[in-house]
Amino acid sequence: MAKELKQQSGRVLIIDDEKVILDLTSIILKNRGYTVFTAVDAPSGFEIIDASQPELVLLDYMMPDMDGLTALKEIRRRFPDTYVIMFTGKGSEEIAVELMKAGASDYILKPFNNQDLADRIENVLKIRGIELKNRELLREREMLLAEIEAWNLELEARVQEKSEALQRAQAEIVQSEKLATLGYLSAGMAHEIRNPLNSISLFVQLIKSGMEDLEKLEYVEKILKEIDRIDGILRKLLDASKRPKFEIMDVMIDRVIDSTLEIFSPQIELHKIKVERDYRSIPPAIKADPSELEQIFTNLFLNSINEMPLAGTLKVQLNYDAKYIVVRVSDTGKGIPPENIPYVFDPFFTTNSRGTGLGLSVVLRIVKNYKGKIEVEKSDASGTTFCIKLPLNG
């Protein structure tokens, strides 16, 4: 009984200038279930490969116009998923090595045995299937590695973001504790200092009332002036730690900024400072005490003016979004040294010999009262920018 042929599937292109080879090979392969294409030269074969994408090409080594080796290299370059078995009538090892180096998957000597041809084709197609699967697995591996790398980067970014948020939260807690401590101490200090201070003021005024010596009167006036200065420092100390009486009403923040800038007009003119208003959008009115908001900008503008004694630019940028009113106050001064930035809102911290170091503490206390935020957004040799965010809905 004749041996039953094993049925295969796949597309095979035969390129050979000998019609007998084309016909014989076609019959053998079609009988085994392959879809077969034929071409008598390499250029025609390239067109068929481009149109039909066969898995395998049986290519004759000796052809006119374009030889088999040249055609092999072109197929491997243009159609890397199409594998090639070479037909050759020359059985030298040198040719075999050259063909394999050029990309041939196998070579068959003419004349060939039908079963050997079928076995060779089946073997090459199996190898092709394995190699293409491996190639696909490698691509998937690269994609997975790229995804893992992206996930790692995203995770690192999230960890960094959470760490920074935690640091900011810890810093805010520390600031709140400092203000609370300041409030406790300042209330006690103000009481303890004001009692003897009031007595001193009263006795000095009594001395002054019966004094006629002009020189001594001048000394007394200086004493009273210093008493007033001490009392002013106590008031600032209390303002930095404890909210005084306030009156809540609808306040347009752009008007508060404008009126505060107007108060500083003499100093701005004296120091030849240019004022830039960048009101990108005017926010709606918020519920606040106008005098408290004015204190915020009074302290920030005063700091900026002190940083620019010999001209500069004071810029106020105003904007808002769905949640916050955002105000940026910038100057073109020499900037805050990086090591000082963490302490600028601390009570009594100042680099100004004439300052008390309470101005920015007052600003921080007021901003926190309105559940807002304030930070040094930028500070370098080109100047400093403070950013204030106040909730729209309080």
UniProtKB/TrEMBL annotation:
<keyword id="KW-0418">Kinase</keyword>
<dbReference type="InterPro" id="IPR003594">
    <property type="entry name" value="HATPase_dom"/>
</dbReference>
<dbReference type="InterPro" id="IPR036097">
    <property type="entry name" value="HisK_dim/P_sf"/>
</dbReference>
<keyword id="KW-0175">Coiled coil</keyword>
<protein>
    <recommendedName>
        <fullName>histidine kinase</fullName>
        <ecNumber>2.7.13.3</ecNumber>
    </recommendedName>
</protein>
<dbReference type="InterPro" id="IPR011006">
    <property type="entry name" value="CheY-like_superfamily"/>
</dbReference>
<dbReference type="InterPro" id="IPR005467">
    <property type="entry name" value="His_kinase_dom"/>
</dbReference>
<feature type="modified residue" description="4-aspartylphosphate">
    <location>
        <position position="60"/>
    </location>
</feature>
<feature type="domain" description="Histidine kinase">
    <location>
        <begin position="188"/>
        <end position="394"/>
    </location>
</feature>
<feature type="coiled-coil region">
    <location>
        <begin position="127"/>
        <end position="179"/>
    </location>
</feature>
<dbReference type="Pfam" id="PF02518">
    <property type="entry name" value="HATPase_c"/>
</dbReference>
<dbReference type="InterPro" id="IPR036890">
    <property type="entry name" value="HATPase_C_sf"/>
</dbReference>
<keyword id="KW-0597">Phosphoprotein</keyword>
<feature type="domain" description="Response regulatory">
    <location>
        <begin position="11"/>
        <end position="125"/>
    </location>
</feature>
<dbReference type="InterPro" id="IPR003661">
    <property type="entry name" value="HisK_dim/P_dom"/>
</dbReference>
<dbReference type="InterPro" id="IPR004358">
    <property type="entry name" value="Sig_transdc_His_kin-like_C"/>
</dbReference>
<dbReference type="Pfam" id="PF00072">
    <property type="entry name" value="Response_reg"/>
</dbReference>
<keyword id="KW-0808">Transferase</keyword>
<dbReference type="InterPro" id="IPR001789">
    <property type="entry name" value="Sig_transdc_resp-reg_receiver"/>
</dbReference>
<dbReference type="Pfam" id="PF00512">
    <property type="entry name" value="HisKA"/>
</dbReference>
<dbReference type="GO" id="GO:0000155">
    <property type="term" value="F:phosphorelay sensor kinase activity"/>
</dbReference>
